[in-house]
């Protein structure tokens, strides 16, 4: 049972992610991207996440979220499959920055 809008956002984001994964399996990468981007937008808004970067995709504040890292990886993989390598690289840098933050927070 969804009790508030925060719960609804989490369920909606997860649904977008799952649909994106299905489209990836079907090799419909543009549809997968649409769903992954919708998921990322919700997660950014929900969690007020920020990554320090010059990258335009890094406009939010990070709080140790491996699910965000995986989402960036999924988006990167879609762009790679579409042979849009420049666009794919925009999603590699935030992934490595997330790893650095997660590692530094553990020590």
What does this structure look like?
The structure is a single chain. The protein has helices at residues 5-25, 29-47, 66-81, 85-89, 92-106. With 107 residues, it is mainly α. Helix 1 (5-25) runs antiparallel to helix 2 (29-47) and helix 2 packs antiparallel against helix 3. The protein starts with a helix and ends with a helix. The relative contact order is 0.14.
List keywords for this structure.
mainly alpha; 5 helices
Could you report the average pLDDT, rounded to the nearest whole number?
Answer: 77
The level of helicity is over 70%
Give the low-confidence spans.
50-54, 58-64, 100-107
Structural category: mainly alpha
User: Can you count the beta strands?
Assistant: 0
- Give the end-to-end Cα distance, rounded to a whole number of Å: 37 Å
Largest sheet: none
What radius of gyration results from the CA coordinates? 14 Å
Explain the layout of strands and helices.
Elements (H helix, E strand, L loop, with lengths): L4 H21 L3 H19 L18 H16 L3 H5 L2 H15 L1
Helix pairs in contact: 1-2, 2-3, 3-5
Give a brief outline of the structure:
With 107 residues, the chain is mainly alpha-helical. The chain has five helices and no strands.
